[in-house]
Amino acid sequence: MSKKILVIASGGDAPGMNACVESIWTHAQKFGWQVFGGAGYTALIEGLWVPIDAALASGISHMTACVVGSSRSKAFGTPEGIAAAVANAKASFDAIVVLGGNGSLKGAWEKLERNGVNVIGIPATIDNDVFFTKNSLGFSSAVEEGARLVDNLNGTMRANERDHVIQIMGWHCDELTKAIGEATFADIIDVNENRHSPQQIAQILERNRTAGKGSSTVLIQEKVDKSKDRNFIREMHEGVDFWNQIAAFAGDDIRGHILGHTLRGAAPSARDRWLGFHYGRVAVELIQVGKFGVGIGLVGDDFTTETLEEIKRRNFDAT
Ligand code: F6P
User: What is the tens place of the pLDDT at every residue in 81-99?
Assistant: First the structure.
């Protein structure tokens, strides 16, 4: 029987989403299904989906910027928005495939699946914050791009013998900052699980200088402090605490940089394209056998599933 499926990308977009869209469309063609796409829960609530056809979906796996768009929906947090999303999903589709991070997959379970909608979740975020899978779509591309950009910055900083501090995107998530920092041998990697005070950072910079190291690199995670919502760029602009305290120790030869949305706009790595292929393939196989309410993950060498309820519990409730 022919089916209609909707693919939505929720939250920040992620490199590799296009490969996943192409894969879902390609595999769905084998069954003659119709595939539609839209920008997140906003598209579902407002009926703003578009047909995905060969012209839109073929040859896009290498492209950045998700072809169906992506959105953060405020309306999906309201009873009216949820009711509209559920009604539209049930009236128009046999299955909804949600591409997103842990917040988006939580919404898929709490607001769609629990209200009787057939949902499948695919982890897609540069944050790599979905516990159940080794890698979400986008992480590998963001690490590659981040390492390349840090290398560029390290080169020019070294030439002038300057220290530098780089904020890496990844709201409340350590993984991206750690991976980029380890790949580039950063001198300090400041993340939630390994915090440094400005004084500690300044002392390490000073020690390196004394030891003859002309330039040191500090990577700090975006909004590292949940309670204070610490944001490096805001502090640089407003001239407050964190930056000034490091600069006070380090003197003039220090610079600050932000690697933010440029990481999300990275060209998809081959690994993310490969992940997108398999996440999409498995999603179509699950729809074919009528298995819903699950997320897909790469565990060891296998693409496998876990219930969205358990994914939500482990991401948000587990201690
Ligand atoms: O996509 C995840 C993420 O990139 C976080 O790392 C980041 O803090 C957030 O999205 C930024 O989102 P926005 O695009 O809304 O600024």
Answer: 999 999 999 999 999 999 9
Q: How far is the CA of 171 from the centre of ligand 1 (A)?
A: 7
- State both tokens at 24: 């879902």
For residue 70, how far is its CA from the centre of ligand 1 (angstroms)? 12
Q: What is the largest CA-CA distance in the chain?
A: 72
Q: Provide the whole-model pTM.
A: 0.94
Asked whether residue 319 carries a pLDDT value surpassing 60, the answer given is no
> Helix, strand, or coil here: 98?
strand
What is the mean predicted confidence (pLDDT) over 149-173? 93
Sheet strands side by side (includes 294-299): 50-52, 34-38, 4-9, 95-100, 119-123, 294-299, 302-307
Strands 34-38 and 50-52: antiparallel
pLDDT value, residue 230:
63
Pick the more confident residue, 168 or 244. 168
What is the gyration radius of the CA atoms in the chain, in angstroms? 21
Q: Which atom of ligand 1 is nearest to the CA of 264?
A: 4
Residue 229 has pLDDT above 90, yes or no: no
Do the beta carbons of residue 170 and residue 283 sit within 8 Å? no
Ligand 1 centroid to Cα of residue 127, in Å, is: 8
For residue 133, name the pLDDT band (cuts at 50, 70, 90): very high
Q: What is the pLDDT of residue 193?
A: 87
Determine the residue type at 236.
Answer: M
Q: Is 170 in the pocket of ligand 1 (CB under 6 A)?
A: yes
CA atoms within 13 A on the CB side of 248: 10
Q: Is 256 in the pocket of ligand 1 (CB under 6 A)?
A: no
Residue that has been written with the tokens 């179509």 in this structure: 284
Going from the Cα of 170 to the center of ligand 1, the distance in angstroms, rounded, reads: 7
Instruction: Check if the beta carbon of residue 24 is closer than 8 Å to that of residue 284.
Output: yes
**Which amino acid residue places its CA nearest to atom 1 of ligand 1?**
12
